[in-house]
Design brief:
By secondary structure, the protein is α+β, with helices and mostly antiparallel strands. The chain is about 40% helix and about 10% strand. Keywords: Signal.
């Protein structure tokens, strides 16, 4: 009986893993290789996050000291549902009109002038465009994973990642516009790398534009 029960548990676990892997591949894996090796890597991070047990929406983990390029933010009235995987960090898609979608996705290109430029995102496995600062003009924190990347928009559900100062990251999390990056909580990426929720209106997209501008200030001093 014990042997039969063990086989049943193994079969159920294998089925769950197979379905979870297929869902991960189907939605998009971000910068992680889309294979079993990549899946095992993000599963390891998933387990580490469970062990850490900290709340990515808790702003108390961030300091308000240091430079800030972001003014006071209006309170966002609620937060979206977040997908359970550690990587890629994503929310469940929410409806957004085409005009606002187009405007949101145009923002990296809009600011890609002078000391800033547009290229494929290194943190997303070159699957979407990102805004960068030219290396010789990079004045903010240094991070080997993030390089000179300032911000990118996720095509599947319109959320973003933006590299902010720690003080500005705290403002974003405190006001309900985003949350901390899972690997930042594990001290594997700079704490300013922030997940910003997708807008639900043009008004919210304009707030997100201010957050991107704060990211530009952090890395390029503009």
């Amino acid at each position: 009986m014990f042997f039969t029960a063990s086989l049943s548990l193994i079969a159920l676990a294998a089925l769950w893993i197979s379905r979870d892997y297929a869902a991960w591949i189907a939605f998009g894996t971000g910068g992680t290789p889309a294979n079993w090796s990549g899946y095992l890597k993000i599963t390891k991070f998933r387990l580490l996050r469970i062990w850490a047990g900290d709340d990515l929406r808790d702003p108390s983990m961030l300091s308000s000291q240091g430079p800030s390029y972001l003014g006071d933010l209006p309170k966002r009235n609620d937060r979206p549902r977040i997908m359970s995987r550690t990587l890629p960090q994503r929310q469940y898609p929410e409806p957004l009109d085409q005009t606002t979608t187009d405007y949101l996705h145009s923002l990296p290109k809009k600011y890609a002038t002078g000391n800033l430029y547009l290229d494929k995102s290194i943190t997303e496995g070159r699957t979407t465009d990102a805004l960068y600062v030219k290396p010789e003009y990079h004045i903010g924190h240094k991070d080997s994973t993030l390089g000179d990347e300032i911000a990118h928009v996720h095509p599947a559900e319109n959320s973003l990642h933006v590299w902010l100062t720690e003080a500005d990251a705290k403002k974003v999390v405190s006001a309900g516009w985003g949350e901390r990056f899972p690997l930042a909580s594990l001290k594997m990426v700079d704490v300013g790398w922030t997940f910003v929720y997708a807008p639900r209106s043009m008004e919210e997209a304009l707030v997100i534009e201010e957050i991107i501008k704060a990211g530009i200030g952090h890395l390029a001093g503009k």
